[in-house]
Design brief:
binds flavin-adenine dinucleotide, seven-stranded mixed β-sheet, FAD/NAD(P)-binding domain, alpha/beta, 2 domains, single chain
Length: 288
């Protein structure tokens, strides 16, 4: 059991880990990739660098420093998080499962908007972003999952025990081999969602029309908003809402950096991490 799992190995996540590790908390950082900094060629506005530094180099330096302190950092993708018990969350990744007393989201801004026509029109009327939350409403029905990655496969798997059939729509992204009686994979591009008041069908670019009652959007990687919906974390304009201690409305779950509202800059992400690291320590001390 970890004291804290931090999701994201950008400046916000790594900064948090420096404070939790130095407080002797059992800390695990899980990050998929280099996040926003990978795209930043030249950083000229961050304290302490008289010459410009690339985002990648700054990030590598940060990770190196955390490793020297003994922080455990995994390169992996988080697919789902479930509440097991009071102060016990299970984090499921592509490679494994980990339990933790507290969680820190440092997942950056990865809000995706689907390019499929009518997704917004049917939000709440057949379009869902959470298989665990909404799957029950579609029991015995025919549904679709939109996406081609591990996250989409995970969402489809969650639905298997509940629904009648699942059309996994890769939207032309890639071919998926999946063996399940209930899941049928369609590799064509998705043209549009169709229906009168509520969702009734999905149309592919070869004019195939698949009748469905619901579609679960799971394109790309699970974002902070996807996790927020599943865990009951309050959001505003797709950002996690936090208090002065960087805690969300769910006790023991914190959020830092670009996945929260406010300035999207490294200095702010690092400062958030420092505050959250100290707050996690206080939180754990108070529940003991
Ligand atoms: C092109 C560009 C230029 C920029 N230039 C500057 C600049 O000059 N100065 C400045 O101060 N700021 C700059 N920024 C902004 C800065 O990069 C961000 O504010 C900062 O990186 C935010 O840090 P973060 O840790 O919150 O998020 P990020 O750095 O985006 O890190 C997010 C982390 O979360 C991980 N993650 C997300 N979802 C999952 C999941 N499901 N499973 C596992 N891991 C996950 C990602 O892999 C990544 O490790 C720039 C940004 C861009 C895009």
């Amino acid at each position: 059991m970890y004291d804290v799992i931090i999701i994201g190995k950008g400046p916000a996540g790594i900064s948090t880990s420096l404070y939790t590790q130095r407080s002797n908390l059992k800390t695990l950082v899980i990050g998929k990739d280099k996040g926003a900094l990978e795209k930043a060629d030249k950083i000229e506005n961050y304290y302490g660098f008289s010459n410009a530094i690339s985002g990648s180099e700054l990030l590598e330096n940060g990770i190196e420093g955390a490793k020297k302190l003994g922080v455990q950092i995994l390169t992996d993708e988080v697919l789902s998080i479930s509440y097991e018990d009071v102060n016990n969350y299970k984090v499921t990744t592509k490679e494994g499962e980990y339990n933790t007393k507290t969680l820190v989201f440092a997942t950056g801004t990865t809000r995706k908007t689907s390019n499929v026509e009518n997704v917004e029109k049917f939000e709440g009327k057949g379009v869902s972003y959470c298989a665990v939350c909404d799957g029950f409403f579609y029991r015995g029905k025919d549904v679709a999952v939109l996406g081609a990655g591990d996250y989409a496969i995970h969402e489809a798997t969650e639905l298997v025990p509940l629904v009648n059939s699942i059309s996994l729509l890769t939207n032309g992204a890639k071919k998926i081999e999946l063996r399940s009686d209930k899941i049928k994979v369609y590799d064509n591009s998705v043209k549009r969602l169709k229906g009168e008041e509520t969702l009734e069908a999905v149309e592919l670019d070869d004019n195939t029309v698949i009748p469905i009652s619901g579609i679960f959007i799971a394109e790309g990687t699970a974002s902070s908003t996807d996790f927020a919906k599943k865990l009951g974390i309050q959001t505003e304009n797709n950002y996690m809402v936090i208090d002065d201690k960087k805690m969300t409305n769910v006790p023991g779950i914190f959020a830092v950096g670009d996945c929260t509202k406010g300035l999207k800059q490294i200095s702010r992400a690092v400062a958030d991490g420092a505050i959250a690291g100290i707050s996690v320590k206080e939180y754990l001390r108070n529940i003991k």
